[in-house]
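Form P-L/3: holo structure prediction, ligand adenosine-5'-triphosphate.
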Amino acid sequence: MPAFKIPLRQYVGLLRGYLSAQRSSIVWLSVLLAAGLVMQLVNPQLIRYFIDSAQGAASDRALWIAAALFIGVSLVQQGVAIAAAYISENVGWIATNKLRGDVAEHCLRLDMTFHKSHTTGAIIERVDGDINALANFFSNFIITLVSNLLLVVGIVILLFREGWLIGAGMSVFVVLAIWAIQYIRKFAIPHWGKLRQMSADFYGFLGEHLEGTEDTRANGASDFVMHKFHTLLRQWLPIRVRAFLGWAAMWITTLVVFTLGNAIAFALSAYLFKQGAISIGTVYMIFYYTELMAKPIEKIRTQMEDLQKADASIVRIRQLLDTKPAIRDGAGAPIPEGPLSVTFDGVSFSYESGDRPTLDRIDFRLEPGQSLGLLGRTGSGKTTLARLLLRFYDPQYGDISLGGVPIRNDKLTHLRKRVGLVTQNIEIFQGTVRDNLTFYDSAVTDERIGLVLAELGLEDWLRSLPHGLDTRLDSGGGGLSAGEAQLLAFARVFLTDPGLVILDEASSRLDPATEQRLEAAITKLLSDRTCIIIAHRLATVQRADRILILDNGQVAEYGNRQALADDPESRFSRILATGMEEVLA
Ligand code: ATP
Ligand code: MG
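OUTPUT (holo model):
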């Protein structure tokens, strides 16, 4: 037996966890397989009886009965095999679908650090490819293994009944055959793991670039992408070739071994027949059993192979499931209702530990209901600050509190309900307008959605939709203008009724009419809420009570908007005088 990469306990744990719900199916499967086993063992005996009777002077009637029995048993055996395959496929799919669900859910719960370091394609390969490799392992691994072992043992016992020589000879053969096949297997296996990894890399690459087709083409990076594509394919080929050569080597070994088995059986039977120890019917039966033996040994081999594939997959899935989200629910008091105060207390954060901090000792406080205009060059850390407020990342130093409660204390889902974020790029999901607004929360009534859309000045837009709230939107924002998408995002935030709203304003590409609608919507959205507006346009800053200017992750200026505007020395007044672009860009 080869050394397994993971302890047996883990296999047992996995099997028990995912199969316990299907106990009755598994019992049925065992019964069917046992029945099939008995029939396989009985049939050669019938043949022997038939041959020997035909040679002797038995009546036709006995021959007819033997023949009918043989055909009957064969047919029933096929039926049993089909039923067993049906049940085991079902068991396998139910178990792996559950596992798929668990792994997918786990991935969704993992934080940004994980998702930034794993491509979509690689995750898909885990959730789908690896779990597919486990399907057989779940559906019938142990049962098939056990029943085939029993079949081999049964055959050997029946052969012993015919004479110790034939029994001993075939036993030696079985041991040698299994050993030889195991031996060859060692050379083939490592390549299978590499093959899976390679395909994960490849699909990761493919997924990433299919997603970004527009950008790739617009920027003329197609050649580069194709080059990478060919490079990956070229790396893939030799690994594939080696893996399949390994497989072929095993296949050929198996063939050779079984031919040897037949030869041994013939030699021994010929010898015993010459001695007059066995009948011609028995010779045929021995031959039949040796032929039959190939099947379980082959089956055991493929099962072991599956186990090995499952092994690699289990290791990877375990690793994935063991990846704990770095950001976890707090156990303390929840963030209060209503507009929230915001406190940053010596907050420093960098994406990679050891890097220069992206945010450096940020201190400020907003009273409930106040609005903050956040300014700064591109890359100064504005979006990062917003991400910290939603705990997409936790800062390495300092504390952030909302409504006087440190955000680490609250549950993540509650925190994210209390803080609404409209990002620079708005995701539209494939689904209806309603789904996109409520995120599939059926508790939100259509009346409520209608009210919110009306408040945002979107009733005309809603009326213009062919099927109202049931109009389907394509993923990736298809069918919506940038302005409409943004208004939709506002409506989303409105529906959750947060106490703090963060607007990460997209560098504006809106027409004046939409912009006006947007202004009106923002005013609505912000009334009676605390808000942070990451502004790229001076117009949006005019509504802010306070201004914070970030420079290289540090607070360059913070204060009352009016006071800063009146102070000719302040950066903000310079921005007002010369325009945002001049000072910041
Ligand atoms: P913009 O005005 O262009 O939106 P910003 O002020 O929002 O810029 P941030 O997105 O906060 O800037 O980025 C601040 C810095 O952090 C940049 O140098 C950026 O390269 C880096 N950064 C942003 N996101 C990540 C990430 N996920 N991993 C590592 N570094 C990041
Ligand atoms: Mg940004």
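COMMENT: The mean pLDDT is 84.
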